[in-house]
Inverse folding.
């Protein structure tokens, strides 16, 4: 006669297994899961950091850097020529791709050399050139060095047209003042 005992008939006893769907009574563990999660998190953060660094190196889309070029490389002035006389510095404003930039404003201010006042000149709507005159009889301003200096610089900054994608974020070539007396 067949037995009513399920274990005797080749069936296993399921009475010691927790019922499906109840986590409160489940005392089993998944070994290695916490360390795998930590490793996945670390790898993910490292990959995200690398991607963000790559995106940061691209720069802003649509922005073009502008810079100054001096006509005849006249960005070096001698203080002996400025005392009792004047020197004119002619500059041109260009974009990084070589295109001329009109309607910009160029500012010259004192750096390690002293300048009586900050100078500004617009390039105009049909021009990319500006002229500054320095010296004792100069129209714009007087330049001088401190008593312990034999060399100094004037800083040049470009204010691009407001309705353009031009920016001036990099330093421009300075005007160098040399005391050769």
């Amino acid at each position: 006669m067949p037995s009513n005992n399920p274990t005797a008939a080749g069936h296993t006893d399921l009475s010691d297994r927790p019922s499906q769907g109840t986590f409160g009574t489940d005392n089993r563990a998944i070994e290695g899961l916490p360390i795998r999660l930590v490793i996945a998190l670390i790898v993910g953060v490292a990959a995200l950091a690398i991607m963000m660094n790559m995106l940061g190196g691209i720069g802003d889309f649509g922005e073009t850097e502008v810079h100054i070029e001096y006509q005849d490389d006249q960005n070096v002035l001698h203080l002996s020529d400025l005392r009792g006389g004047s020197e004119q510095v002619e500059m041109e404003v260009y974009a990084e791709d070589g295109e001329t930039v009109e309607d910009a404003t160029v500012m010259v201010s004192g750096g390690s050399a002293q300048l009586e006042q900050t100078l500004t000149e617009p390039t105009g709507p049909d021009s990319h050139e500006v002229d500054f005159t320095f010296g004792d009889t100069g129209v714009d301003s007087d330049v001088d060095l401190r008593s312990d200096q034999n060399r100094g610089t004037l800083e040049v900054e470009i204010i691009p047209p407001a309705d353009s994608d031009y920016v001036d974020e990099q330093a421009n070539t300075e005007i160098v003042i040399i005391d050769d007396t």
